[in-house]
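Moderator note: this is an archived Q&A kept for reference. The question asked for a predicted structure of one protein chain; the sequence and the answer are reproduced below.
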Amino acid sequence: MEELVKYIVSHLLDESSDFEVTSNVEGDITVINVIVGAGDIGKVIGKQGRIAKAIRMLVKASSKDSGKYAVDIIER
């Protein structure tokens, strides 16, 4: 699932943008952290959070059988 989020975010940002995608398990939920720079956070979140909601929806839809996932977007 981490690779899916990394693929989506890499296509949202410019080639020169620096971002990081990590994951950690908290209980029965796997949290995927997307860490981006201050100038790129708007590109990942989108207007009124639409892109962030779409990323979370794709992760949820593709993880039906493999457990629970949460996606957090963090500014560096």
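Archived answer notes: The beta strands are 19-26, 29-36, 68-75.
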